Amino acid sequence: MTEVFHPDQRPVPHLVHYVGRQRGSDPLPRDVRGLTTEQRLSAILVTGLLRGFVTTGTVNRPVVCVSDASPAELEASFRIGMNARGRVEPWALVFDRQIAWETGIRPALYADTQLAHQLRYDFFGEHPTRPGLVQRVDPIAGDGYTDWSHEREWRWVFPVSSQVPDPNPTVQVWPILHAVIAGRQGWKPDGAISAYPERATVQRWSWTGTSLVHDGTLA
């Protein structure tokens, strides 16, 4: 199969999950708010699981969110930030987009406040299974203005269950993990990951304060 790439895309597409995010007034989920960003990244790698949480606009449905960010955008997000909230802490997971697609991730749909509800109905009907896929964007600048389209967000959205839903459903990390970004050189998770053979191919990149540098693998 011949693949044609947009000139602004990388030839090998990846998706990024920022472990440290600007939360604004929204608190971190109770299960992780006591951990530092570094500890959260370590816990994800040791357990091999990325947990879903309910977030703004996902209609009480847990999701896992990632961004379609280029290397230049990654460095900019760590150095100056992507919005008025400031820079993002330099701890992240980088996933293979094709493998992630095969596990169910899809790009978020953007709609303004007036259209978001109708879009959910048009796409998903009376009993939606994936309403968390629609992301609200308020089109008029000012107080309460939100526009996250620069993130080019992708999400795993967990399906509705007739049984008691899992409050924190999970995504298996190791089969889709391409690289880890750490806030210092030589970083390793605080715990054993020897049970995961995929670690031998997982690249490690470190943030120097001004740029990302290749820092070996996690093996």
Number of contiguous helices: 4
Beta fraction: 15-25%
Shape call: globular
N- to C-terminal distance = 33 Å
Number of strands: 13
Describe the sheet with the most strands.
5 strands, mixed
Widest sheet: strand ordering: 1-5-11-12-13
The percentage helix is 10-25%
What integer is the average pLDDT?
81
Strand-pairing-aware structural class: alpha+beta
- Write down the secondary-structure element order: EHEEEHEHEEHEEEEEE
Q: Radius of gyration in whole Å, from Cα? A: 18 Å
The unreliable regions are none
What would you say about this model in short?
With 219 residues, the chain is α+β, with helices and mostly antiparallel strands.
Task: Describe it.
- The strands form 4 sheets. A 5-stranded mixed beta sheet has the order 1-5-11-12-13. Strands 3-4-9-6 form a 4-stranded antiparallel beta sheet, with no helix packed on it. A two-stranded antiparallel ribbon has the order 2-10.
- By secondary structure, the chain is an alpha+beta fold.
- A hairpin with a 7-residue loop joins strand 3 (53-54) and strand 4 (62-67).
- The protein has helices spanning 37-47, 71-79, 97-102, 113-124, and strands spanning 14-18, 49-51, 53-54, 62-67, 92-96, 106-107, 109-111, 134-136, 153-157, 170-172, 177-182, 203-207, 212-217.
- The longest helix is centred in the middle third of the chain and has 12 residues, at 113-124.
- The chain is built from 4 helices and 13 strands.
